Amino acid sequence: MLKEHNMTQIDGKLPNLYGRWSLYVALAGLVFVLLAMLDSAPYSNVEQDFTVDGSIRTGSLILPTNSETPRAVMIFVHGDGDMGRSAFGYYYPLWQRLAKQGIASYSWDKAGVGGSDGNWLKQDMQSRAQEIHAAIAMLRQQQQLKDVPIGLIGFSQAGWVMPKALKDFTQISFAVFVSTPVNWLKQSEFLTQIRLQKEGVLGDAKLQQMQQAQNVSKLIAQGEAHSAYVDFLQQTDPDAVDSAMSPERYHFVQQNILADSEQDLSGIKQPIFVAFGNHDSNVNVPYNVRQYERIFANNASQLQLNVYQNANHTLLKNSEFGHLSPSLWWLIKMSLWEEDGFSEQFVDDVMLWLNTQLTQLATQKTQSLGA
Amino acid sequence: MNQLTELVRAQYPSYLLRTLLLSLFEVVIVALLFLLTKPYFESYQVFWYLLCLILVPACGCSVAVNSLTKIASQVMVQANKQSITLEPGSEDGKATLAATSAETSAETSAWQYISWKKVVLMVGTGLLIALCYSASAQTFDDLLMLFCALIIATFLFANWIILNAALPFSIAVVSAFRHRRQVYDEAQSVDHIIRFHLLPWSAIAVTTLFTFFVKYYLGLADEQGYVETGAVVKSTYICGAVVAIWLWLEVGQIARLEHILGHINLTGIGHISDSEAFSLVMAVPLVLAVIVAAINGFFDIEHYRYQTAIAVSMLFMLLAAFAGVSIAIFKLCASKALSDPQFENT
């Protein structure tokens, strides 16, 4: 019989010390397990800035947690666009994989992005190469990175930056080139072809538009002002005025339009790994493969070049990412897929190649010490 | 302390053990399902994150519902034996509210005591576990830690829900039993079955296996993302059979209480023996698999794009879940309704 005076105890919840304690114990257990998981993180992310020509670049030094002294440090060199240090999370799986191999990574916000001073649109390829030198100087001041080999890994536009840095700076031991074209104008021409192909422009109209693009490139290369460029568009192709380059972008293109890495590549002594995707719609892969093979024809062992199947410009799987333009969904998908988003074998091949380079460097060091 | 409170409290030692074992069992079963599909478990780490978001609320709710139903059933049996009755209309506000609301709103399904706030909190905890795993080295040891975290989180939330709901739910059940005047008609029964059995259990089964199928098919898919039809039919049959048996057993046990309360009442169902019910549960997924294979053969489909394979398997799981739940309910309704011996056996 439930008496009235007894019912005052009922308030919808059951006061029970036994049950409550089981909650507290479970909560403590959960916190403990989560902390244990965090403790096994493969890398620690340390804020590390440097200065180049009095201008600050803010960046992250990714240190592996599985060893006190990293086996090497890889410097990440961005492609085109306003890239932050992680390239919108694109670098995370690479940082993680490198850290698991005991290799540190360093990447910084491009000029004018994040906490970095300046404006990347005012930079040319030489000034970006100088940034690499400044970053290396800063890294060498770190006790744990004083003597470790330094490598570069760069994407797309970095193909004109890294050869300059490699040629001028012997402290860099090797480099990985990802979807990097050799000649700016040739790449520009290829981009125009792809655009016209997508728009379904054929025959004379295509030839006419190709000629128009060449004339624009010629005008930019001649050093004409932005206003002259806009006037030219108004006269020859009024429809294109709305999508014309901004003055800043125009200036950036004008500074770099004659970029060609052939001469710099010919002068480098370090081994390089070059990767392309067979579905790259930004870079003419067959042409550039031929260029790299020609440049390194006399020293083939210096070059390892792989073309990956089902891979796009970012070396991500074309079947999963090819139809996606840079968007929020692309970012979400990339962050969810992590390393599995990359074309099969690409990351494995890079890691294998890096390990081979590090082994060779270690052998050379031992031999030189013995001598 | 009143007698009903004491009755509920008396269930605690056994309910704590039951909750812990169920949490362990449910998470371990899913973990084994994933881990045994080698070699694919080592890659596609993202699916462990997705699994955290799904498994914590799914297992938390299912374990809580299971234990709550068991507690309420036991309390109802004991209250009946000891002739404990609820006296609505007492002077005390809270007590009156608890007792009378139980009668009027008839919240006699354990699902009704799980609030959306708690579900969101469970998803949030799943997210936290996923983030911690993401930041870890993602080794096999970390994967085991992840499953430990999922078991603890499942136990934590199920226990929390039970602590809050055991007494009001038991009051509602005892009250509903004492004041039951007429059983539901068939339309009300079907509505009740869909709302409290088909939908929640099917949602849990399908979402949990969704993660599995995404991971498994991505592992099987070739560079262009295609999965062979044979693999789709085979894997969906195995999972369909597991889902149908699981829900047959789970719903069969939980729906028993509502059958006694008169909320599930289907007439005109002939006798179904245990072996016949089991055969049906095993046969339905097989028939579905044969239909899928026949359709593939007719349209000459040799392989599916993995997204399509996932969709096919999910539809298959949904139908298998429906079959498991339906057979459990039919078996229940085919037995002698609302008899005292049945009540004693709850």
Give structural notes.
The complex is a heterodimer of chains A (371) and B (346). Chain A has helices at residues 4-7, 17-39, 92-100, 125-140, 162-168, 184-199, 203-221, 226-236, 247-256, 262-267, 285-295, 318-321, 328-337, 346-370, and strands at residues 43-47, 50-52, 55-57, 59-64, 72-77, 103-108, 150-155, 172-178, 272-277, 303-308. Chain A has 371 residues and is an alpha/beta fold. Chain A folds into two domains: 43-183 and 260-370, Alpha/Beta hydrolase fold, catalytic domain (Rossmann fold, 3-Layer(aba) Sandwich), CATH 3.40.50.1820; 185-256, no CATH class. Chain A has an eight-stranded mixed sheet, sandwiched between helices. Chain A has a two-stranded antiparallel ribbon with strand order 2-3. In chain A, α6 packs antiparallel against α7 (203-221) and α7 runs antiparallel to α8. The longest helix of chain A has 25 residues, at 346-370. The termini of chain A are far apart. Chain B is mainly α. Chain B has two domains: 1-179, no CATH class; 182-346, no CATH class. Helix content of chain B is 77%, strand content 2%. Chain B has helices at residues 3-10, 12-35, 46-81, 93-105, 116-135, 140-178, 186-220, 229-260, 274-298, 306-334, 340-344; strands at residues 226-228, 303-305. A two-stranded antiparallel sheet of chain B has the order 1-2. In chain B, α7 packs antiparallel against α10 (306-334). The longest helix of chain B has 39 residues, at 140-178. Chain B is flat and about 70 Å long. Mean pLDDT of chain B is 81; it is low at 89-104 and 337-346. At the A-B interface, α1 and α2 of A face α1, α2, α3, α4 and α5 of B.
